[in-house]
Amino acid sequence: MKKVTLLLVLMLSQFILGQEVKSYLVSYNYVNVGLNESKSVSLYIKGNESLTIFNKNDSIINKNSFDDKGDFNINISGDDKVGKRVYKNLKEKQIVFRDFYSTEGKLRPCIVEEELPIFKWVFGVKAKKIGKFLCNSAELNFRGRTFEVWYTNQIPISHGPWKFYGLPGLIMEIKSKDLNISFTINKIKESNSVSDKIQIPKEGKKILFNDYVNYKENTIKDFIKNLYSKLPRGAKIKLNSTPVSYNLEKKFKRI
User: Hey, which of 61, 210, 241, 249 would disulfide with 143, CB 3.0 to 4.6 Å?
Assistant: First the structure.
């Protein structure tokens, strides 16, 4: 009888624990001032897994401009009907993302896997309400940018949009210190259909992370090479020797 009772208790405990895993669909407004991008971002969360989808933008953006010195700055981003995606698995310490790289003057989709970055969060003392949620502040330096982040302990899940994770509550708001990039929460809802959405990105060429870094670092050179092929013979372009990067990641460390 004791064995039967113990078995029932264990089965009930497993059932309760299974019921406690909630699924969420979180929507953000994403703005990148330098790239002139403004779009909605969907974050699907269940347990240790999440998927961020940067929803479709109708065009490829080439943000080209002259600075105060007359130098030409080039910033390139890409998009298509599938869009940029970031899959995170906190248990497996894995990120698989879909992005775009430039080769032969064309932007092409790629699938890249990297180890989950180790974020060194600096917790702040500030607090504020975002909607009905009380939020606390934290700061992060990551790949050339400093971000101020607001999270809420009222939703105790360690996820956020893009590659962000690791706080004791859902990330509600993100702003880069240079005010170029922001994620602002729009909607939060529990959803039973999230599991169907959380899939590892597949539509694109699989490349190694270090190759992705090389492509990113040489994107402007590739773009200029293609541009020269279309200019009259002898034409020259003066580029800023230290062009400003408006991408989420400005500096990379190879793995």
Answer: 249
Of the candidates 59, 94, 103, which has an alpha carbon nearest to the alpha carbon of residue 204? 103
Residues 92-129 pLDDT 10s: 999 999 999 887 777 889 999 999 999 999 999 999 99
To the nearest 10 degrees (0 to 180), the angle between helices 219-228 and 209-217 is 50
Name 236's Cβ contacts closer than 8 Å, sequence gap at least 6.
Answer: none
Give the integer Cα–Cα distance in Å for 102 and 14: 49
Nearest-angstrom CA–CA distance, 156 and 171: 10
State the average pLDDT over residues 28-57: 92
Gap between the Cα atoms of 141 and 136, Å rounded: 17
CA neighbor of 242 nearest in space, from 73, 33, 64: 73
